[in-house]
Amino acid sequence: MGTGDFICISMTGGAPWGFRLQGGKEQKQPLQVAKIRSQSKASGSGLCEGDEVVSINGNPCADLTYPQVIKLMESITDSLQMLIKRRLDAPFLFLEDQSHPPSPQHLLGYTSLLIATLANQLMG
């Protein structure tokens, strides 16, 4: 997918999350966000169509097939954290809720998720 920014997306409250994925190892395509439902948890979280999903709750996605990703998503009951890669040329995103700037806890969550993802890749 080339160069881009890594972003941590967090959602709580359980499914439905409000997005659809496409791609996977068996399709020889990176796992990407295909569609975002308006007024959903995903649309409020900052997730964008075309984002590449690097990890889900610390589980790297590069070697997962689409059915494995669906199984992983179905196992998540309350809190979803996704490390995504966004192309540098992606359109600027206006969040639905701009009243809260990123908190130190959000930034710490990003760091923890990135470390968990990298650790899983090195050990897997």
UniProtKB/TrEMBL annotation:
**CDD domains this protein is in?**
PDZ_SYNPO2-like
Q: Which residues form the signal peptide?
A: none
Q: Looking at the record's lineage, which domain of life comes first?
A: Eukaryota
Q: Does the keyword Cytoplasm apply?
A: yes
> In what residue span(s) does the PDZ domain sit?
6-88
Q: Which SMART domains match?
A: PDZ
The protein's UniProt keywords, in alphabetical order, are:
Cytoplasm, Phosphoprotein
Protein family (similarity comment): Belongs to the synaptopodin family.
Q: Tell me what this protein is called.
A: PDZ domain-containing protein
Organism expressing this protein natively? Felis catus (Cat)
Q: What is the lineage of its organism?
A: Eukaryota, Metazoa, Chordata, Craniata, Vertebrata
